[in-house]
């Protein structure tokens, strides 16, 4: 099991804690701050997906007129994890 923490930028959520299985599958994500119900829904949907599948589905999503969103920040965190792993 691998765990890492990401501090999102440009969104309401303040911290994301990822728990990944050894095969780079999402075990769980805890998101502090942001829209609680929506983020719980997103976490339930991505649980069991691979890092690459989550990035493919969430990368580039905007929130209103912001250039990012909490889903986009999840993808950004996972891309950053992949480059440093």
What does this structure look like?
The chain is globular, with a radius of gyration of 12 Å. Strands 1-2-3 form a three-stranded antiparallel sheet. The mean pLDDT is 96. It has helices at residues 36-46, 51-58, 70-84, and strands at residues 2-6, 13-20, 26-33. The protein is of the alpha+beta class. Helix 2 (51-58) runs antiparallel to helix 3 (70-84). The protein has one domain (2-84): 2-Layer Sandwich (Enolase-like, domain 1).
Structure described in brief:
The chain has 85 residues and is an alpha+beta fold.
Secondary structure layout plus pairing:
Layout: E1 2-6, E2 13-20, E3 26-33, H1 36-46, H2 51-58, H3 70-84
Antiparallel strand pairs: 1-2, 2-3
Helix pairs in contact: 2-3
Low-confidence stretches: none
User: How confident overall, as mean pLDDT?
Assistant: 96
The number of helical elements comes to 3
Give me the side-by-side strand order of the main sheet: 1-2-3
Under CATH, the topology is which?
Enolase-like, domain 1
Category from helices, strands and their pairing: alpha+beta
CATH class: Alpha Beta
Number-wise, the strands total 3
Sheet-strand content, in percent, reads 15-25%
Q: How much helical structure, as a percent, in the residues?
A: 40-55%
């Amino acid at each position: 099991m691998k765990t890492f923490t990401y501090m999102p930028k440009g969104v309401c959520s303040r911290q994301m804690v990822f728990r990944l299985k050894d095969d780079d599958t999402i075990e769980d994500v805890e998101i502090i701050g942001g829209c609680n119900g929506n983020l719980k829904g997103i976490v339930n949907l991505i649980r069991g997906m691979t890092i690459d599948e989550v990035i493919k589905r969430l990368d580039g999503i905007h929130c209103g007129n912001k250039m990012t969103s909490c889903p986009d920040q999840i993808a950004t965190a996972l891309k950053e994890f992949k480059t440093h792993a």
